[in-house]
Write a structure and sequence with these properties.
Number of helices: 13
Bound molecules: pyridoxal-5'-phosphate
CATH class of the largest domain: Alpha Beta
Number of domains: 2
Largest sheet: 7 strands, mixed
Strand order of the largest sheet: 2-8-7-6-5-3-4
CATH architecture of the largest domain: 3-Layer(aba) Sandwich
Order of helices and strands: HEHHEHEHEHEHEHEEHHHEEHEEEH
Number of strands: 13
Structural class: alpha/beta
CATH superfamily of the largest domain: Type I PLP-dependent aspartate aminotransferase-like (Major domain)
Oligomer: single chain
Length: 365
C-alpha cells in the first residue's frame, strides 16, 4: 500500500518539526543539518561588544586573516547572504550550477536571471561526469559563471584546488568561478585559499566560507566572501557597515584563535561521524541504502523514496529529524537521505537514537 505523502521540513527547521509532531524543541535529535553538534563554547564576553557600534575590530580582522589565510574578505551574515547577493552583483551572464547541491544557489540565480535559458546544470553525483560537462561548456569559449560547492552538500562531490584554478583561468572574459566552501574546514588544505599566491593573482574567483558549520554556531550568522576587491566593494556597498554584530565578532575572534579546539574538533567530528554511521549501519543495510558521499559532518544515501518517506515520518514522530532530498531531475524512484552526526559522548542521545533505529528495523519483520 502506498504511504500517504509526508510534507518534508527544511533541514534544521526544528521549530516547524516541533509544531508538526508536538514534541518540545529541546527534545529533538537533529540529524537534518551538517552542523557540528559539539559547538564552540561561548566565551565570557566583554559587555562593550554589546554597547558599541560594531565596526569590524582589528582583532577580528587579524583572526579572520590568520584562520582563512587571506585578508581579502567581506564578512557577512552567513554565506547565505552572499549566495543571495552574488547573482545581482556579477556581470549578467549564463550560469552553470550543480544539478544537486545546496538549493539556495540555484534559487538565487533563478530569481536574479531574466531568461531561464541562461540557467544550466551539470550532474553533481559523479565526478567524471561533472568534469566532462564543465569542460564541454568551457570549450564553447562563451562567457559564463561556474558555481562549485566544494565539497558538495549533499552529494559529497569535490574537486582539487588545481582543477579549480585551471577552470577559473579558462573562463572567458567576464565569467566568474564561485566556490562555496561551507564544509571545507575539516580539510583546510583543500581550500583554494590554501594557495595564497595563486588565489591573490586570480581576478575572477570568489570563495564563500561559513562559520556556522565547523564551529557549530549557525545561529551566530557569520560567513565570508573572499575575492577580488571590486566584488568585495560591491558586497560592502549592499550590506552596509554594521552587518556583523559585536558579540558575533567577539565569539568568532576567540574561536579562530583557538587552534587547540580546532585540532581537537577535527578528530572529534571524525569520531562522531564514525559512531553515527555505526549506529545506522544495520538499518542502512536493511533498506539497501547506497552511499552517495560524505563530508564527515554529513553522509548521503540513496534510498527507495517511499521507504525513505516512511522512515522520515517514523523518526520524526519519535523526535529525530532527518533530511530527505528529492532529486527532481532523476527519473528513478530514489531519494537522498542526508544524515548529520550526533555527539556520541552524549549517552542519552546515543541510547535514544539506538532505540528508534531498532524499533524501525522491527517494523520490517
Ligand atoms: C553548501 C552550503 N553553503 C552555504 C550554506 C549557508 O550557510 P551559512 O549561511 O550558515 O553560512 C549552507 C547551509 O546549509 C550550505 O549547505
Amino acid at each position: 500500500m502506498k504511504a500517504e505523502t509526508v510534507k518534508l521540513i527544511h533541514g534544521g527547521d526544528l521549530q516547524s518539526a516541533a509544531m508538526r509532531y508536538g514534541i518540545e524543541l529541546e527534545e529533538w535529535i537533529d540529524l537534518s543539518t551538517g552542523i557540528n553538534p559539539c559547538a564552540y563554547p561561548i566565551p565570557k564576553l566583554n559587555e562593550i561588544c554589546f554597547q558599541q557600534l560594531p565596526y569590524l575590530s582589528t582583532e577580528f580582522k587579524k583572526a579572520v586573516t590568520s584562520y582563512y589565510g587571506s585578508d581579502r574578505f567581506a564578512a557577512c551574515s552567513g554565506s547565505q547572504q552572499v549566495i543571495e547577493l552574488l547573482p545581482k552583483l556579477l556581470p549578467k551572464l549564463p550560469v552553470l550550477l550543480p544539478s544537486l547541491g545546496y538549493q539556495e544557489h540555484s534559487e538565487s540565480w533563478i530569481n536574479a536571471c531574466e531568461d531561464e535559458r541562461d540557467i544550466h546544470f551539470y550532474p553533481a553525483t559523479d565526478q567524471d561526469v561533472a568534469i566532462e560537462r564543465i569542460e564541454f561548456q568551457l570549450e564553447q569559449g562563451e562567457p559564463f559563471h561556474l558555481v562549485v560547492i566544494n565539497p558538495n552538500n549533499p552529494t559529497g562531490l569535490s574537486f582539487s584546488v588545481a582543477q579549480l584554478f585551471d577552470w577559473s583561468s579558462r573562463l572567458a572574459e567576464g565569467g566568474f568561478l564561485i566556490v562555496d566552501e561551507a564544509f571545507i574546514d575539516l580539510h583546510p588544505e583543500q581550500s583554494v585559499l590554501s594557495d595564497y599566491d595563486e588565489f591573490h593573482t586570480v581576478d575572477n574567483l570568489v570563495v564563500m566560507r561559513s562559520f556556522g558549520k565547523f564551529f557549530g554556531l549557525a545561529g551566530l550568522r557569520l560567513g565570508f566572501l573572499f575575492g577580488p576587491e571590486v566584488v568585495l566593494q560591491a558586497v560592502h556597498n549592499r550590506i552596509g557597515i554594521w552587518s556583523i554584530n559585536g558579540p558575533a565578532q567577539a565569539v568568532a575572534t576567540d574561536a579562530f584563535n583557538n587552534r587547540t579546539w580546532q585540532m581537537k574538533n577535527r578528530v572529534n567530528i571524525r569520531l562522531n561521524s564514525e559512531r553515527t554511521l555505526t549506529l545506522f549501519s544495520p538499518l542502512l543495510k536493511r533498506i539497501e541504502a547506497k552511499m552517495q558521499g560524505t563530508s564527515l559532518l554529513f553522509s548521503s544515501w540513496w534510498v527507495e523514496s517511499e521507504r525513505l518517506e516512511q522512515m522520515y515520518d517514523f523518526f520524526a514522530q519519535r523526535g529525530v529529524l532527518l533530511r530527505v532530498i528529492e532529486e527532481l531531475s532523476k527519473p528513478s524512484d530514489l531519494s537522498l537521505l542526508r544524515l548529520g552526526i550526533i555527539d556520541a559522548e552524549n549517552e542519552s542521545i546515543v541510547l535514544k537514537l539506538q532505540q528508534v533505529i531498532d524499533e524501525f528495523i522491527l517494523t520490517f519483520d
